[in-house]
Specification:
- By secondary structure, the protein is of the alpha/beta class.
- The chain has two domains: 179 residues, HUPs (Rossmann fold), CATH 3.40.50; 94 residues, 2-Layer Sandwich (Pantoate--beta-alanine Ligase, Chain: A,domain 2), CATH 3.30.1300.
- The protein has a six-stranded parallel beta sheet, sandwiched between helices. A three-stranded antiparallel beta sheet has the order 7-8-9, with helices on one face.
- Helix 2 links the parallel strand 2 and strand 3.
- The chain is globular, with a radius of gyration of 20 Å.
- It binds pantoate (PAF).
- The site of pantoate (PAF) has 10 residues, from strand 2 and helix 7.
Length: 293
């Protein structure tokens, strides 16, 4: 394996400097992850490798963004397989720190607050989640800062609210990094890839397909300039007994405010994001599709 693994911030700084010098490189791409990597992460890595001289992936299961200890404990940890996948994609360096390395004094006193944008949708059912996620993203972005002239970080469109919040944080707090969004990767039947899909039984997985089916329905209506009739798409999801719908809305992609008046009876015009979340068996699933009409 050509990939190098480091576990401390000091090693990361030294190794990324060395790699940039070795390659005579001027750009660095950072791919933050929590491990348990799948094809969605491979696509993030591939996109970063295609555009940057040096690519660093981070693997850290961040306790600060988990609401309950059980969820944190059962989050899959698959370091060897993750390293193999990242190596195959041409990633140069992996930073996989311990909790003590990242939070040496325990939980940090000072954190990023995600404000109104972090309280809605996913934030409403996972209080504090986005403050924890933004705090670690801020730290990871700082760890990755190097001598490179160009600094980019890669996030999946699948976690649309996280992506909007990271963009806002970087803009509001002037982080010297370009945020690159990478489209959602789906399996052939339409299910958006997620590290949590492995907890679905066959029947639950089959039921979960209604989420992407309902999103595709909205997307096709938007493309055809038809009324979105969100209510009928919600009814489709609710007809699946194994699926407990939390929300299904069409929102402004930047503010995540509902575009309610544009979604029922009049032809859809403009830009939007259809977002959905549901519990299927033991798993909370989220998905979305960008709309443009
Ligand atoms: O999307 C994720 O995997 C995590 O929220 C992230 C961005 C790595 C922060 O822990």
């Amino acid at each position: 394996m050509a990939i190098k693994l480091v576990t401390t911030a000091a090693e990361l700084r030294a190794a990324s400097r060395e790699l940039l010098a070795e390659k005579g490189g001027s750009s660095l791409g950072l791919v933050p992850t929590m491990g348990a990597l799948h094809e969605g992460h491979a696509t993030l890595a591939r996109t970063a490798v295609a555009a940057n001289d040096v690519v660093v992936a981070t693997i850290f299961v961040n306790p600060l963004q988990f609401g309950d200890a059980v969820d944190l404990d059962r989050y899959p940890r698959t370091l060897d397989a993750d390293l193999e996948l990242l190596d195959a994609e041409g990633v140069d360096l992996v930073f996989a720190p311990s909790v003590d390395e990242v939070y040496p004094g325990g939980e940090p006193l000072i954190r990023i607050t995600s404000g109104r944008l972090g309280e809605k949708w996913e934030g409403a059912s996972r209080p504090g989640h986005f403050d924890g996620a933004l705090t670690i993203v801020a730290k990871l972005l700082h760890y990755g800062i190097s001598a490179a002239q160009t600094y980019r970080a890669y996030f999946g469109q699948k976690d649309a609210q996280q992506l909007s919040l990271v963009r806002r944080m970087v803009s509001d707090l002037n982080f010297p990094v370009e945020i690159v969004a990478v489209p959602t990767v789906r399996s052939a039947d339409g299910l958006a890839l997620s590290s949590r899909n492995r907890f679905l039984s066959d029947k639950e997985r089959e039921a979960a397909l209604v989420l992407s089916r309902a999103l595709r329905l909205i997307e096709s209506r938007a493309l055809a300039h038809e009324p979105l009739d969100l209510e009928s798409a919600r009814a489709l999801v609710k007809s699946e007994s194994r699926v407990a719908l939390d929300y299904f809305e069409v929102v402004d992609p930047a503010t995540l405010e509902p575009l309610a008046e544009n979604c029922q009876d009049t032809p859809f015009r403009g830009e939007g994001l259809a977002i959905i979340a549901a519990r299927v068996g033991p798993v909370r699933l989220i998905d979305n599709v960008p709309l443009s009409s």
